[in-house]
Amino acid sequence: MTPDHDRTRFHFQQDWFELIRPEWEQRTAHLRGRELRILEIGCFEGCSTTWILDNLMSHPNSVMTVIDTFEGGMEHQAEIGPDHPTDRYQLSTLKHRFDANVAKCTEVAKLTIMQARSDDALVALRQQRRRFDFIYIDASHVAIDVLHDAVMSWQMLDQGGLLVFDDYSWRGFIEDCYNPRTAVRAFVKCARPEVECTETESQLWVKRVPNCIPATPNPDPALYYWDKGTAKHVL
């Protein structure tokens, strides 16, 4: 094992990515050595970030951008307070831990960190006319936030690029309207003409492909609008 692939040099309190790392090694094999523009939305301690830097950033022109508030998500913040005195995620030192981990990567100079909410950062990237080949969404696990991240990211993903949703099978909330799967399914339904999807154990990998379902104008004006009763049923 070369030094750049020795994962023991990093220090992660939460090693969620390690559970899916073998899957990533297989699914990204075709990307090795290519010039890549990668966006990671939500990076936490840098477990996935460091793997990407070590494995997908070898091309001299490759670049990577990460977005994170380093304040944790709603499910992390819910465990701070009198009822959870230990603060097992130690959010106050999260950014320091991330910085310390990525600093150990040879390709760290190719990394740009945007410490911001994803809704603000994605707008900024759109204004800069940025484009990406690979986007990993693992930020807020609240459905409405996931949907926003997906739509904004899709507008910056080149054809042939990959959009990966983490925690597709995660059910951290009793109410399904909050869970990521609800948002991902809604997004995929809307983007159906341009997607090829592969569901893994806990993630959904979406490839952007040429439009295969052209829009067909409705020839009957009488059917332009949903029946009121049907619309109520859908909602």
Count of discrete alpha- or pi-helical segments spanning 4 or more residues: 8
Radius of gyration: 19 Å
Order of strands in the sheet with most strands? 3-2-1-4-5-7-6
State the end-to-end distance: 54 Å
Portion of residues in beta strands equals: 15-25%
Shape label: globular
Mean pLDDT: 91
Briefly note the structural class of the backbone.
alpha/beta
Unreliable runs: none
Main sheet attributes: strand count, strand direction, barrel closure: 7 strands, mixed
Helix proportion range: 25-40%
How many extended strands? Answer: 7
Listing every helix as H and every strand as E from the N terminus to the C terminus, the arrangement reads HEHEHHEHEHEHEEH
Outline:
Helix content is 30%, strand content 17%. The protein contains eight helices and seven strands, in the order αβαβααβαβαβαββα. It has helices at 21-27, 47-55, 74-77, 94-102, 118-127, 143-154, 180-191, 228-234, and strands at 37-41, 63-68, 111-115, 132-137, 157-165, 195-199, 204-208.
If you had to describe this structure to a student in words, what would you say it looks like?
- With 235 residues, the protein is an alpha/beta fold.
- The chain is 30% helix and 17% strand.
- It contains 8 helices and 7 strands, in the order αβαβααβαβαβαββα.
- The chain has helices at residues 21-27, 47-55, 74-77, 94-102, 118-127, 143-154, 180-191, 228-234; strands spanning 37-41, 63-68, 111-115, 132-137, 157-165, 195-199, 204-208.
- It has a 7-stranded mixed sheet with strand order 3-2-1-4-5-7-6, with helices on one face.
- Helix 5 (118-127) packs parallel to helix 6 (143-154) and helix 6 (143-154) packs parallel to helix 7.
- The longest helix has 12 residues, at 143-154.
- It is globular, with a radius of gyration of 19 Å.
